[in-house]
TrEMBL record, chain A:
Similarity-based family: Belongs to the glycosyltransferase 34 family.
Any one cellular-component term (Gene Ontology): Golgi membrane
Record flagged with keyword Ribonucleoprotein: no
GO molecular function: glycosyltransferase activity
Native source organism of the sequence: Pichia angusta (Yeast)
Keywords on record: Glycosyltransferase, Transferase
InterPro entries, alphabetized: Glyco_trans_34 (IPR008630), Nucleotide-diphossugar_trans (IPR029044)
Protein name: Uncharacterized protein
GO biological process terms on file: protein N-linked glycosylation
TrEMBL record, chain B:
Keywords, alphabetical: Glycosyltransferase, Membrane, Transferase, Transmembrane, Transmembrane helix
Gene Ontology CC annotations of this record: mannan polymerase complex
PANTHER family to which the protein is assigned, alphabetical: ALPHA-1,6-MANNOSYLTRANSFERASE MNN11-RELATED
BP terms from Gene Ontology: protein N-linked glycosylation
Family recorded in the similarity comment: Belongs to the glycosyltransferase 34 family.
Gene Ontology molecular-function annotations: alpha-1,6-mannosyltransferase activity
Transmembrane segments annotated in the record for this chain: 40-59
Protein name (Swiss-Prot/TrEMBL): Uncharacterized protein
The organism's place on the tree of life at top rank: Eukaryota
Length: 333, 431
């Protein structure tokens, strides 16, 4: 029925308009714009209207503040001062690397009507923080009395890249608790590292540890506190979840599989005074020449140690080190 | 008088075209000045950059950026080998791992005393404590060397008993791992050979019909572990299940089916019948008390079938660990190992029954509960009842054409053989 359109217009095929250059086709638009140059500013507006693209931070630093505070006594001005500089230290570090700092109150709380469960809140806080920052991957727990000595170090470069190759996957190298090194059903070859731990002279140290959001972690945080375990062991587990984690590590292969150990001085150097029985062993104590990453003044409020003195010492030391680093690029420095 | 009219010499061409006229002398000096300043600036910048690069490369200011100086590189490289309860394992290429059932009477004759080493319990001089000894000489296949080379059937069965736990399935060639493995623990002290043969044959037949794997162990193999905390033999099922997960690492699901249960329908394929989310979704018991009838903790209302790692049945009197399915992933393994932790087995009220520990775990650990599905008994463990008049909509007791029959409790009246026989005959007749 329909005759091809071209058949009626025989000239259409032969007489074509001269091909326009592509640029020439833009000419009307260009002319339009040339008369209204303010329109060029419109795309700029988009920058302000569309929310900026933010890469959500991968790392959350959890700082346990107000340790043991709340019920037993007042805080002294010196303790306030230590807490302030500890927070400032982590805040500066977090800002420098685009991490999140989340300060968590660990004051003593009464959880259950029949007993105190003080000191067992690490798992609860981790769970809560993971809910709070659903996009973050790594969570770095830090006790209050820690101080980052080398804030220029990024965790990605220092630890997370190639993590499985940088951590010990069993206790054969350093085993103060004498936990049997070999365990049935442990498959480290096919497991990632989801928990980065360090051991001091007495075993696991939870003053500074890193944990990755994963199915494994979800389950660990769920089983860490169990009333049946607690009932049987709370008299023996002096360090609460730290001892409990040691027990879980000892008896449950799935937990072993994904724990990676780093030397204490990699994430948690001690000042002289801690680990008193092994005070000559250099593997635990802060070394200025090696520029250790972090110092943890754990236990500084016991015996004849003073948190404030120690804290001031390391704060000033860091200032000095930083000053010397500031000129390191000049010849002769 | 200057009127602000530009002179011709001021109107110099712009853009690419360089001025044809020479630059006025007064300007030239300034430009030269500018050039030399730039040169100096460039020189300084280059020097600093070079210095920075050189110092980064040759002087150890980069040392603070890693902790390699603190670690023993060699120790980092060595990884522990993955193995089961025995370090030396026997590689098997068959889907069906089960002990020679014909050894049952021989093993009974040998008694535990000759299967294990033993010592007197320090707490109770009446009690003998058995323990494993890994001191047998092994050949290159990790089989126990037959020193006496005797044809004595007792020695043969003893050797088979000690070797059986070492067997792991590792597919070679074109063979693939089964996706589902049926796990059963059998007790040669409780049942006669004929009875045990029927049970194991039943598992193998069913597995063969559907391409599954079978993993059967003697419960007696775990006596030393059970003795540690005076656990009931029921606990052995969990150890056997864990060993099965090691023996079939590639399998996706493990179905523990007790020796008191019998698969009636070999035409039912477990995955599409039960494990597939669309099959599981409608039968999950939601908002169901874990301890019936009026326990406070109930299963979640909105559990998704996709999340389920653990499927277990519940009858009127509570959960039933005679037939349950566990997924082979980190949740499944973690849950099972947590369930069998020494502190669980040691707890006085759990020592007698693995079920009590399970009910405790589900009530206290929300993550585990959210991955668990409770389903009615008649799905994978219809209960046997001697009185046949049952309601049609009953969800617990066996009815014609059910998948599995569970005659638990038959040991109380020693009727297991009789009951099994009746179902066995029923099945033979149906064929």
């Amino acid at each position: 029925m329909s005759i091809p359109y071209a058949a009626h217009q025989p000239y259409l095929k032969t007489l074509k308009p001269a091909a326009q250059s592509r640029l020439a086709r833009l000419e009307p638009a260009a002319r339009y714009l040339r008369h209204r140059p303010y329109l060029l500013l419109l795309p700029l507006l988009l920058f302000f209207l569309v929310p900026h693209y933010h890469k959500s931070p991968r790392v959350v630093i959890i700082l346990a503040a107000n340790e043991g505070g709340g019920v037993q006594r007042w805080k002294t001005p010196q303790e306030w001062s230590v807490e302030r500089s500890s927070i400032a230290n982590k805040r500066e570090y977090a800002e420098q690397h685009g991490y999140i700092l989340s300060i968590k109150d660990t004051a003593l709380k009464r959880r259950y009507s029949h007993e105190w469960r003080e000191g067992w809140e690490k798992a609860d806080i981790l769970k809560q923080t993971m809910r709070q920052y659903p996009d973050a991957e790594w969570f770095w727990w830090l006790d209050l009395h820690t101080f980052i000595m080398e804030p220029q170090i990024s965790l990605e470069e220092y630890l997370f890249n190639n993590l499985e190759k940088r951590t010990y996957r069993d206790l054969s190298y350093h085993n103060p608790l004498h936990i049997p090194v070999d365990s049935p059903y442990v498959d480290v070859e096919h497991s990632p590292v989801d928990l980065v731990l360090a051991q001091d002279c007495g075993g696991f140290n939870l003053g500074s540890f890193l944990v990755r959001r994963s199915e494994w972690t979800e389950l660990l945080l769920d089983v860490w506190w169990d009333p049946v375990f607690y009932e049987q062991m709370h008299m023996t587990w002096e360090h609460k979840e730290q001892d409990c984690l040691e027990t879980l590590y000892r008896t449950q292969p799935w937990i072993r599989e994904r724990v990676g150990f780093v030397p204490l001085r990699a994430i948690n150097s001690f000042p002289p005074g801690a680990c008193a029985e092994q005070k000559d062993d250099p593997q635990y104590f802060y070394n200025e020449k090696d520029r250790d990453f972090l110092v943890n003044m754990a236990g500084c409020n016991f015996g004849d140690r003073s948190c404030w003195n120690e804290y001031e010492h390391y704060r000033n030391l860091q200032k000095q080190l930083r000053k010397s680093r500031r000129w390191s690029w000049l010849p002769g420095f | 008088m200057h009127l602000g009219i530009p002179k011709r010499s001021d109107l110099r061409p712009k853009g690419k075209n360089k001025p044809i006229l020479p630059i006025p002398a007064s300007f030239r000096g300034r430009i030269n000045d500018f050039k030399s300043k730039k040169t100096i600036l460039y020189a300084v910048l280059t020097l600093l950059t070079l210095n920075y690069i050189v110092s980064r490369a040759f002087f150890s200011s980069g040392k603070g950026h890693n902790f390699n100086h603190l670690t023993n590189q060699e120790a980092l490289q060595t990884l522990q080998k993955n193995h089961g309860l025995y370090k030396h394992e026997i590689i098997v290429n068959s889907n069906y791992i089960f002990p020679p059932i014909e050894h049952a009477p021989l093993l009974r004759e040998l008694t535990l005393d000759r299967l294990f080493k033993s010592k007197v319990s320090p707490d109770n001089p009446q009690e003998k404590l058995y323990y494993y000894s890994d001191d047998d000489d092994l050949n290159e296949l990790n089989e126990i060397k037959d020193k006496s080379n005797s044809e004595n059937p007792l020695d043969q069965s003893r050797k088979a008993f000690k070797e059986h736990g070492r067997k792991v399935f590792r597919p070679s060639g074109s063979k693939k791992s089964p996706e589902i493995v049926i796990v059963t623990g059998v007790d040669f002290e409780q049942f006669e050979q004929g009875h045990l043969t029927k049970i194991v044959q039943n598992r193998v037949d069913y597995a063969h019909a559907n391409g599954y794997g079978v993993y059967v162990r003697w419960i007696q193999e775990f006596i030393p572990t059970l003795q540690e905390f005076h656990n009931d033999r029921k606990w052995a099922r969990l150890f056997i299940l864990r060993a099965a997960m090691h023996a079939f690492p590639q399998a996706k699901y493990f179905w523990y089916l007790d020796q008191n249960a019998y698969i009636m329908r070999h035409d039912i394929e477990l995955y599409s019948y039960l494990l597939e989310p669309k099959s599981l979704e409608p039968i999950i018991l939601r908002d169901q008390p874990i301890v019936p009838p009026n326990g406070v903790i109930k299963t979640y209302k909105k559990t998704k079938a996709d999340d389920i790692r653990f499927v277990i049945t519940q009858a009127k009197d509570g959960l039933d660990t005679d037939s349950f399915i566990l997924k082979n992933d980190i949740y499944g393994k973690g849950f099972l190992e947590f369930w069998t932790d020494p502190l669980m087995r040691k707890y006085p009220s759990f020592a007698g029954d693995d079920k009590d520990a399970l009910m405790h775990i589900l009530q206290w650990h929300p993550v585990i509960l959210s991955k668990s599905a409770i389903i009615p008994s008649r799905t994978i463990a219809s209960l046997h009842s001697s009185n046949t008049a049952e309601e049609v909509d009953d969800t617990s007791f066996y009815q014609e054409d059910d998948f599995v029959v569970n005659f638990k409790g038959c040991d109380v009246y020693h009727t297991c053989e009789l009951v099994l026989d009746s179902y066995w005959k029923k099945q033979q007749a149906a064929k």
